[in-house]
Amino acid sequence: YPDFEVIICAESEAVPALSAARQVAARHPERQTRFEIAPSEGVLNPKVGTLAPGFAAARHGTILIRDSNIALAPDHLSGLAAALTDDVGLVCAIPAADAPSGLSAQIEQAEMNGRAAPYTLAAAMLGINVGYGKVMLFRRADFEAIGGIAAIADSFGDDHALSRGVARLGRATVYTPTVAVQRLGRRTWRDVWTRQSRWMVIRRQQAFAAFVMEPFTGTPMAVVAALFAAPALGLSPWTAAVGTVVWRLAAEIAAIRLARWPAAAGYPLAALMRDIAIPVIWLPAWWARRVNWIGQSHKISTEVNNPSRPATHRR
Known about the structure:
- By secondary structure, the chain is an alpha/beta fold.
- The chain has two domains: about 5-185, Spore Coat Polysaccharide Biosynthesis Protein SpsA, Chain A, CATH 3.90.550; about 210-295, no CATH class.
- The protein contains twelve helices and ten strands.
- The strands form four sheets. The chain has a four-stranded mixed beta sheet, with helices on both faces. Strands 1-2 form a two-stranded parallel sheet. It has a two-stranded parallel sheet with strand order 5-8.
- Helix 1 links the parallel strand 1 and strand 2 (about 35).
- It is globular, with a radius of gyration of 21 Å.
């Protein structure tokens, strides 16, 4: 793709990433770069509302969406484009959380790298179409065939809606071997709680079966199972509980190291606190009617929008 354009979409001139984007654009006058600054209006999803002018302005048949807090390797665009084969409708890149500052940010890293990433990739390997919205590449023709902006505008999980849409066209959602990098920096406890609560409610809406199972996949339930099994194994409750915690953390950290994903020095504690927090976040998500996003409160239906059986593809 020797001819490509860059379109920067933002809700207002106050967006911090705009100044950096303008500096980069100024250093590369040979590459066409446009800025579409417009408030999100008329749609439930503020991200989609901000991107809508960009979709309208784009003049090519292949579209890449990248969040402003994501960094790609120099050759990652080539890898994304190569993965968009005839039977693929959506190409995503898993974001690996890096450089967390403070325990709250380390917990978010543990959630992204230790739960969200491997579970998403496992689903993809099983042929389940699951999108991850940090980096998405797709064809304009496919996007228009599933309904365009209208198909994802009223879904807080726009990535999930897009992935299900291409599945209806008989196309797969795939992931590149190379991860994208999201530098976390400092995160307040409130930031982490708000974001994880929003994602939990979105999963209730759009991946109900996965949502129901969430508290049963973490360390607390594994410890409960170990305590029940301890007598049959001839182990003391203490040995069974501690052994389960150590084994699970060691396996998770080993998998992250093998994948060469970042893990902070405090990762074991952060992962344990993440697993303890999941049931606490999960329970109120059952009846939550509002989510906070980009500093605003948004109303959300308590009904499940999609069936619990995920969209699948055949390749």
